[in-house]
UniProtKB/TrEMBL annotation:
Residues 127-300 form the MOSC domain. It comes from Halorussus gelatinilyticus. It holds the Pfam family MOSC. GO terms for molecular function: catalytic activity; molybdenum ion binding; pyridoxal phosphate binding. Residues 94-113 are annotated as: Disordered. This is MOSC domain-containing protein. Coiled coil: none annotated.
Length: 305
């Protein structure tokens, strides 16, 4: 296992030079990522704007209870855990300063001329009115009544550890090699917010410890807290363009993860090998601060939780 930084392979912690190599966020939950050069940390979410909009499995005129929206596969979100159809939607987000917020959608395999732009509701908007055309298009695509809802604090898979998710570029390359897909496919399968370069595969496992501990780390001048290795679901085992299943993905992943586990992967939180990426939280003092591609990354130490 090795990653390359400059002209030298990074094979262990001693020759690592951790830095923020790639940033991405997901304005519409479960749709395509949007790369960023810099991003603001949010107090109640990951990166500002991450999962601000989500598709829900209900008509637009149904009462909406945010507490009832569950991402575990049994609740209201339309996501990859519940349907592979979501992988076949291509999306491009249009931010507020570019005539948005809005999103352009087309179905995988169709021509760009079939793309259509839709408005996304902003603060104070009548969501049902703004999203009427978008809800109709999505309902037609999924074959049932769905609707888009906005939550400025984000709509995240982990309701408690909802800071930016962290993985290393080398980890994604390593896993991609196991299954013969490329780095970009790995990024879209595992959907991390923050990617660390200049480190060996699975370096991010340094950012969690035992269940009664958390790990402080710094990105640039901003501190974050690493909590938990992320348990994976069915999504990484699917082609991110088509939703096609990779045969025996979970079994092969677990076997290779066990074969390549580094010495620094420790802690009782890592209780099985179908885990990859680290869940974090944003300390109160870091909310509103900015991180940027190129920022150095430094592990500071553990603290009790």
């Amino acid at each position: 296992m090795s990653d390359w930084y400059g002209d030298h392979p990074v094979t262990g912690l001693d020759d690592a030079d951790p830095h923020l190599a790639h940033l991405q966020y997901f304005p519409v939950k479960s749709l395509d990522p949007e790369p960023r050069d810099r991003a603001t940390l949010a107090a109640e979410g990951a990166l500002a704007g991450d999962r601000e909009w989500a598709i829900l499995d209900r008509p637009a005129d149904d009462p909406y209870d945010p507490a009832a929206a569950d991402v575990g596969g049994s609740g209201d979100y339309v996501n990859g855990k519940k349907t592979d159809a979501v992988h076949r939607l291509r999306s491009t987000f249009h931010p507020r300063d570019a005539g948005g917020p809005g999103v352009t959608l087309r179905e995988q395999g169709t021509d760009e001329s079939d793309s259509r732009r839709f408005a996304l509701a902003d603060a104070g908007d009548d969501e049902a009115a703004v999203h009427a055309d978008l809800n109709a298009r999505l309902s037609e695509f999924f074959g049932r009544a769905v609707s888009v809802r906005r939550d400025a604090s984000g709509q995240h898979d982990d309701r408690e550890r909802h800071g930016p998710t962290v993985v290393s570029t080398a980890t994604l390359r390593e896993v991609a090699a196991w299954f013969d897909f490329d780095l970009e496919s790995a990024r879209r399968r595992f959907r991390a917010n923050v990617e660390v370069g200049g480190v060996p595969p699975f370096w991010e496992d340094c950012l969690f410890a035992d269940a009664d501990e958390a790990v402080r780390f710094r990105v640039g001048e901003v501190e974050l807290v690493g909590i938990h290795p992320c348990q994976r679901c069915v999504v990484p085992g699917r082609d991110p363009d088509t939703g096609e299943e990779t045969p025996d993905f979970r079994e092969a992943f677990v076997r290779r993860r066990e074969e390549t586990i580094p010495s620094w992967t420790a802690g009782d939180r890592f209780d099985h090998a179908f885990r990859l990426m680290v869940n974090t939280r944003v300390p109160e003092e870091s909310a509103g601060e900015t991180v940027a591609v190129g920022d150095p990354v430094e592990r500071l130490g553990t603290e009790a939780v």
